[in-house]
Design brief:
With 445 residues, this protein is α+β, with helices and mostly antiparallel strands. The protein has nine helices and 25 strands.
Length: 445
């Protein structure tokens, strides 16, 4: 079985998230995408029409397609992350409609953590507001490679080009200062459908793509041959049967990169080196496997390997450490404090740990960096230093979102406390946020 690098790199799937301030129209945009791309069932549309009529609305409220919780429908807001799956002839999509309220910022972190693109909505009447900058900062921290600024409700400002241009210029400058690599601005009306799926007849001054066209064509890099190959061991297979008396395999899902038979690999954290003698996938032996396939690796040497160990190419191993400096997004209601004992889950490995220090906090109310806060509360983003009881092999998050991330867990009840991103690069992002606030007083933080 042979596979070319082009076949490995090809993708037909885009994960994206929507974000923005309250009432900017996130759920309506998602509903419009689903409706106009014919990705909803007839009974779903009928249910939305019935609820809309009961509220006295003449047209279907497309936001109801994503606001599925009763509390969301009653309040007219998004609370939880709503995941939707749809497809066009050009690409498949997994979208996450995330909340706009400040108290649900942690849910935006959840939705954007695996996204390759974020759509940040802005109400054309209000322009860039505090929550807009907050979501841009979260997208930058999570290393989302593509950001779309959707300037919504253009119908309420008479489709005026100067309004769009001013908002696009302000947001682009701010997001670029955070290190967002690519920003695309699109003027839309989610309610009327302008520039969502079909081009708008009211904005002939705009010559760019619609939202759907951009989603279908934005380049999503999956050059797996260039990734750091990582294989977290999930299970050791030793059937010890008469048919397979000497079989020993290590099963799991490839987190990143490509593995080949004959390749020299290291097993971490022990550092022992061996060679891949076989790869089993779906009951067949193959010569090559790539992320995110679930496979079983067979190795030349009988090494002590267990769940949680990491297999990587011998020439490209991540650092092994017990002292982890990282940025965390705190998602629990209970605070995270210096000296607190936690569990740290990294890929398939869970170890005991202690929070040694919290050097700084990026307060989301004013996007300023505050030193030595002592603890983090819900929705806070901050720098932490964690000491683990056992060594771990972590990549920097900017190099690998999969093997550079981890969770901090309450050992008492298993509650997830914080989502962590390893590496020191995020301090620079926090500093950029603070510097941007200092340099532009008219933003009035």
């Amino acid at each position: 079985m042979t596979t070319t690098a082009e076949q490995l790199s090809a993708t037909t799937l885009l994960r994206f998230a929507t974000a923005g301030s309250v009432d900017d129209g996130k759920s309506t945009l998602v509903g419009r995408l689903l409706h106009d791309s014919k990705s909803i069932l007839t009974d779903q549309l009928e249910a939305v029409e019935q609820v809309s009529l009961s509220r006295g609305q003449e047209a279907p409220d497309l936001a109801l397609l994503t606001d599925g919780l009763r509390a969301e429908r009653e309040q007219g807001i998004t609370i939880d992350v709503a995941y939707r799956y749809f497809a066009t002839t050009r690409r498949r999509f997994i979208l996450a409609d995330t909340p706009g309220h400040v108290q649900y910022t942690r849910n935006m972190v959840t939705g954007a953590s695996t996204a390759e693109l974020a759509v940040v909505l802005v109400d054309a009447r209000n322009g860039v507001v505090e929550q807009t900058r907050r979501h841009a900062a979260v997208a930058a921290l999570l290393r989302v490679p593509h950001v779309v600024l959707a300037v919504n409700k253009m119908d309420l400002v008479d489709y005026a080009e100067p309004v769009f241009a001013a908002i696009a210029e302000e947001f682009t400058a701010y997001a670029a200062s955070l290190g967002v690599p690519e920003i695309t601005a699109i003027p839309i009306s989610a309610l009327a459908g302008d520039n969502v799926v079909e081009p708008s007849a009211h904005m002939d001054w705009y010559g760019g793509p619609t939202v759907l066209e951009h989603l279908e064509t934005v380049p999503v890099s999956h050059d797996l041959t260039a990734c750091h190959a990582r294989f977290p061991v999930q299970y050791v297979i030793r059937p010890q049967t008469a048919e397979h008396p000497d079989y020993r395999g290590y099963a799991g899902q490839i987190a990143a990169g490509v593995f080949r038979v004959g390749e020299a690999v290291s097993v971490l954290p022990s550092g022992r080196t061996t060679t891949i003698t076989g790869i089993d996938a779906l009951g067949e032996s193959v010569d090559i496997a790539w992320a995110p396939q679930s496979v079983t690796l067979r190795l030349a040497d009988d090494i002590d390997i267990s769940r949680g160990d990491l297999i990587a190419p011998a020439t490209d191993v991540p650092p092994v450490t017990q002292d982890i400096e990282a940025t965390v997004c705190h998602v629990a209601d209970q605070p995270l404090s210096v000296g607190q004992r936690v569990l740290l889950k990294h890929t398939t490995r869970t170890v005991k740990a202690i929070v040694k220090d919290i050097p700084s906090r990026l307060t989301l109310d004013d996007l300023s960096q505050h030193p030595a806060p002592g603890q983090l509360v819900a929705n806070d983003i901050g720098r932490v230093v964690v000491r683990t009881a056992e060594p771990l092999a972590l990549d920097a998050y900017e190099d690998s979102r999969r093997t550079g991330s981890f969770l901090l867990i309450d050992p008492a009840d298993g509650t997830t406390l914080s989502a962590g991103m390893a590496g020191a690069a995020f301090a620079a992002v926090a500093e950029a946020v603070t510097q941007a606030a200092d340099d532009d007083a008219e933003w009035d933080f």
